[in-house]
Structures are given as C-alpha cells and as structure tokens.
Amino acid sequence: MINVGQVNHLEVVKQADFGVFLDAGEFGTTLLPQRHVPEGVEVGQFIDAFLYFDSDNQLVATTETPIAQVGEWGLMKIEGISSTGAFVNWGIKEKDLLVPFSEQRGRLTAGQTILVYVYTDRASGRIVGTTKFNKLLDKTPANYTRNQQVDLLIAERSDLGYKAIVNGEHWGMIFSSDVFGKLFIGKRMKGFIKAIREDGKIDLSLQKVGVAKMDDLSCKIIELLEKKGGFLPLNDKSSPDEIFAAFRTSKGTFKKTIGGLYKLGKITIEKEGIRLC
C-alpha cells in the first residue's frame, strides 16, 4: 500500500536521463528526479522515497527526509505568510508545508519557529499542518500507571511549567517544581507518569517518583561506581549541572539517594566524592 506523505519502499521500473520512475501502486508511476537518485541504482532495485503532491497536485518522489511525515509532529520555521495561511519549512526543498489560517492557534509570523502536526486533509487530499493540537489529543481515557515510563514531546510553555504530548495521544503537565535540565519546545525525551487526577489530567515527572525513583537511581549510582573503579567525583556539594549530566536527575534526589546508600553501608561520602565500600 502506498502512503502519500510518508517514506515508501518503491521499485525502480524505468530509467531515463532525467531520473528514474518508481512503481507507486494505485498512483501508477512517479518520477524521482536525477538529483535524488542514489548512484548505481538499476531497474528492479528498491529505493526509500518520500511521496507528496506538488503545487500542480502531481505525485512527486524525493529521497529528502521531511522534519515530520504525515501523523507526526515536528519543529518548523515559518518561511512566509500568504492569503491562505503560513508556509513552513518541513525539510523538502521544492515545497513548503501550508498551515492554513483555520489550523492556526494564535497569530503566526514569518521567521517564527513552531511545533506543527502534519496530516492529510480529507476534503482536499492535500498534506497540510496544524497547530491546533487539542482536537488530536485526549480522545481516549488516560490509562497509565504511576511511574510508568512514557515518551514526551515538549509542546508548550505556561505559567505552571511545560505542557507535553504523552505517547502522541494525551496532554500532560510538567510543573515548574519538577523541571530540571534544559527544556524547550520540540524536545523529545522520556518521562514518567506522576499522577492522573480525578478530572483525567496527567501530571508528569522527568524522573521516577518516590521509592521507585530512589531505587532506580541507587542502581545507576552503584553501576557507575563499579565501572569507574569504585570512586565518583560527585557528592552533596556538587553542582546541579554536574549531577544532571551524570544521572539525569535533580540534586535533591541525588542527595537523598546517596544518603540512603551511605546508611546501608554501600558507599562512603568523602570530601572529593563518593566511594564504593
């Protein structure tokens, strides 16, 4: 099955001076221009090519990889504004992606970098973008458990912290008190379910919560100590940035964890760092 707006594995069926023709299934054949043809390709071989419709509504193939395919989010720069909407650079040189005015949440300006969801408009068949994420998310109940690891995409910043898209399906909130390290719109990372409130809203954490978090970090500290010959130049006096670089956790959690390991007799805490017993 051919998926327009995505990368397809297509067979080369004909060669020409200006490129090769690919078998595009129900769409017939489509041209892959010579500048995109990998060296040495022959008839009968397969090529991974991205398919989209050009401004004349003709199917076009390219070996360029877009920032986001249909069904994905991507961070894109607005190249210009027209009477129909904003055109963003989605990584395809020959064609920018249209974000129609009807799909814009708030006023957009040229030069701005925004998070865009790419989809196929059912009415026109065109590949377009939207910044109205509410209609895409929270369509099903949030069926997560506390401390479950999830995929996060940072989507918005608010007075409370950062809103993130959870597993591509739900909204979640990382409150400012739970933020450490550098977060920015478009960043993809792992996170954990902190709580699901009675109204169904999701609270997120960048590290495991409570005892589970401590146990997980304890194991990481012991493992790294063993790899480093039993000593790490980190302790409760180390900077938050140093601790985050080593363990992706906050200084407060690190201090509590090494305190617990010390009480268990697993480590000693010295002036210059911690040592495995």
UniProtKB/TrEMBL annotation:
Record protein name field: GntR family transcriptional regulator
Family (UniProt): Belongs to the CvfB family.
The organism's place on the tree of life at top rank: Bacteria
Database matches in InterPro entries: CvfB_fam, CvfB_S1_st, CvfB_WH, NA-bd_OB-fold, S1_domain, WH-like_DNA-bd_sf
GO molecular function: nucleic acid binding
Residue intervals of the S1 motif domain: 3-64, 69-132, 145-207
The species this protein was found in: Vibrio panuliri
Pfam families xref list: S1_2, WHD_CvfB
